[in-house]
Amino acid sequence: MNKSEKKRLQKEYLEQQKKQFLDSLPMPFAQFSQLFDYLDAQSEENNCAHNFDMTITFLKENKIPIDNVLDWLRNHGAGCDCEVLLNTEEYFE
């Protein structure tokens, strides 16, 4: 396999991984960005209660199915609101 073939395969693999990630999201990518912004703002005023209260509030206000999102967050390292920012936001960078 030559160098250009290897680069092409690597690019295809990365694109496939990105598509699989986006397909796994329980809500649109843009709403995750909004959730992160919301939690950033809320965490300036409130300490994390080590639950998903702030996340649930955001989801309810935006009429987003709660259980699907919380399951996804838990499966990606979040156990509470602060861990949504600490452990899952990096997936979106």
UniProtKB/TrEMBL annotation:
InterPro entries reported in the protein's UniProt record: DUF2695 (IPR024248)
Protein name: DUF2695 domain-containing protein
Native organism: Desulfovibrio litoralis DSM 11393
